[in-house]
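Action item from last meeting closed. Structure (200 res):
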């Protein structure tokens, strides 16, 4: 039993060493359009009919890499603007799986969780001691959870360029939104982005 534990520890050390040698810590940047909608709504079921722009930047850590697959973790910081509704800052992480289809083409699925800080785009007041006072200047903390599907192309394999481009559909939830009416707000975002590898 003791020998088995030693062998397992040794195997994990080799696996970690191999993974650390393959770490490239890519930088990903995407612009996106966000909509308050469920999957299947909007244009082609994924794109909001109104423009609510956003931007996201992040990186990822590679857990394991197989012949045609990769398991990784992302860390992303995002911002979105929804006119007459809210501004929001996102900080979240995703567990991702990538399947390399053929000649640089790949597909990904990602499951995320994180923190969101929103600022209402309308003035808010409360009646206090006989007068109305403005509230909501500092925003409010909220939870976000997400599920994404992405399709990308890696130029490292065909052109030897250290970057790839991707299109990502993200469905995410925001809570609590309005406790009595809409406790959980569904959102959909379509990202167009690049991922490049400045560190080798």
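Sequence:
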């Amino acid at each position: 039993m003791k020998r088995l534990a030693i062998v397992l520890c040794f195997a994990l050390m080799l696996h970690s060493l191999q993974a650390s040698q393959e770490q490239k810590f890519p930088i990903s940047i995407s612009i996106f359009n966000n909509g308050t909608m469920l999957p299947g709504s909007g244009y082609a079921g994924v794109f909001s009919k109104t423009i609510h722009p956003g931007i996201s930047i992040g990186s990822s850590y590679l857990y394991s890499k197989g012949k045609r697959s990769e398991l990784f973790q992302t860390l992303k910081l995002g911002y979105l603007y929804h006119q007459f509704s809210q501004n929001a800052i996102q900080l979240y992480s995703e567990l991702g799986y990538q399947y390399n289809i053929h000649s640089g083409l790949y597909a990904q699925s990602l499951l995320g969780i994180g923190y969101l800080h929103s600022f209402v785009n309308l003035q808010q007041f409360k009646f206090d001691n006989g007068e109305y006072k403005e509230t909501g200047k500092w925003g409010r903390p909220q939870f976000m959870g997400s599920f994404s599907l992405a399709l990308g192309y890696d130029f490292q394999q065909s052109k030897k360029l250290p970057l790839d481009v991707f299109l990502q559909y993200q469905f995410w939830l925001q809570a609590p939104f309005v406790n009595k009416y809409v406790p959980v707000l569904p959102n959909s975002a379509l990202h167009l982005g690049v991922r490049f590898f400045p560190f080798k």
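Note appended to the action item: The first strand starts at residue 27 and ends at 35.
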